[in-house]
Amino acid sequence: MKKISSFILRNLSVTIFIVVYFGLVVMHLLSDQFILENQLSLILTMLPFIIYGIALDYLIRKNRALNTWIRIIAQLLPLGIFIMQIVSTVYLYLGKESYDIFKYLIWLFLVAPVFITSYTKDGMRSRIINTAIGTGAFIVVYVFLTTQTKELSSGYGAMIYFITYFMMLYTAGGIKKIPYLGTVLGVLNALLLLIHRYVPITSDARTYGWEYDISFLIEMFIVITFIICIVIRLVEEFRKKPLVNE
Fold it and tell me: Could you tell me the pLDDT band of residue 97, with boundaries at 50, 70 and 90?
């Protein structure tokens, strides 16, 4: 029993995602029986989350600086993504409009766990400075764009974006030999947004105007940047010499 409990704790994130997946499978089977297309769509939707859970559990296990409760909290945080979706669905069922902040909070539940896994006292000051520069570049461009369009949030949505970028860029700056990666990613994101303002990147923006899908573009940048940050963290851990008791 203790071995099972220990295994679940070590793989809590991926276990949660697998349980959510099977829960959704049961719901679909009860509501529309077995439709292959729906099941394929469901597994394709959940597969990235399951892979993310595997990576998160691995990174948490590798960081010995985190105490047990911090580890568990980090592993449970992604569950908030589905809680937000459930709450939104309940509001919709009751005929009420869900809070707009829900769609922004999802980013924090996704990014914060990996940010926690990157905690280390070594080089923290340097990482914060590099992260602040990269985040600052993004904030400057974002604020500039809010003066050009009403399609971007200038309230709590913007603040959540800024916090999300800070956590991602801090995570990216973990490789000691390349501590400025966070700065590079932040500046690159800022430049791409600025370029999009004058030379639209997407086909829809070229047709309907640069602001047409600007919110979607920013969230796409967040996803891409986040994936890069996870890869950087994994590479960082793979490069370390394994401990004797691992």
Answer: low
